[in-house]
Amino acid sequence: MSIELAWEKFINCRDEESRKKLVLHHLPLVKHLAGRVAVKLPTFIQREDLEGYGVIGLMEALDKYDHTLGNSFDSYAYHRIRGAMLDEVRRQNWMPRTAWQKFQQLKSTKERLEGELGRTVTEDILAKEMGIDIEELNQVQSNANKMYLASLDEEVVGGDGSQVRKLDLVEDTNSPDPLSIVEEKETRRLLSQAINNLGERDRLILSLYYTNNLTLKEIGQVLEVTESRVCQLHSQAMKRLRKSLIEMLAS
């Protein structure tokens, strides 16, 4: 089915198969926007999560789009998808909006000054450039530090120069032996690769279920199919995932 035919059938009768076709066709837009939004956010906010929020925004855009107004769907969906991502980030972020904006200003100002001067800037210079006093600057930095400490998934530079999670640097007296850790990381790598080998629909269902923690019933409402159909699609996706893993381990 061509995109033009999918649009025609969806507009005329809200055809389910056409809706799926349009969602899959516009997934690259979701991925593009997730990449752009992620650049401006703390590193512990995962791009995959943003893509999940964006998919929900894309589906809402399809349901609410009015083609009679003559507006481009891509333009309309752009704002709906981006808005869905930012709305979810704000819901998860404890910082007030004004504090978040101050943090973003601090970050951009510091990066600009260090680029211009070629060195680390002092608090006095930074505060003067932002038009605030040292006390307010310290408060902004304190809020930012609390935000970052809220997640152990943030990546930092390790002793060998590689990127590691803060969680991996926390001492655990009950931690498994190093070989187990290596095996676990290799398993995660293979699992990630196997998921990437799946089709778009399978990845979407697994993302909504395991990343966004939606129930089968909720996924059915999003995809406009029955809960039993979602259960069937989920089972098929898991079978294909297991088959892909087995083939990778055997090669």
Automatic annotation (TrEMBL):
Domain of life: Bacteria
Pfam families in UniProt: Sigma70_r2, Sigma70_r3, Sigma70_r4
Keyword entries, A-Z: DNA-binding, Sigma factor, Transcription, Transcription regulation
Any one GO molecular-function label of the UniProt entry: sigma factor activity
Positions of the RNA polymerase sigma-70 domain: 215-241
Keyword Magnesium assigned: no
GO biological process assignments: DNA-templated transcription initiation
InterPro entries in the cross-refs: RNA_pol_sigma-70_dom (IPR014284), RNA_pol_sigma70 (IPR000943), RNA_pol_sigma70_r2 (IPR007627), RNA_pol_sigma70_r3 (IPR007624), RNA_pol_sigma70_r4 (IPR007630), RNA_pol_sigma_FliA_WhiG (IPR012845), RNA_pol_sigma_r2 (IPR013325), RNA_pol_sigma_r3/r4-like (IPR013324)
PROSITE patterns to which the protein is assigned, alphabetical: SIGMA70_2
Protein name: FliA/WhiG family RNA polymerase sigma factor
Species name: Desulforamulus aquiferis
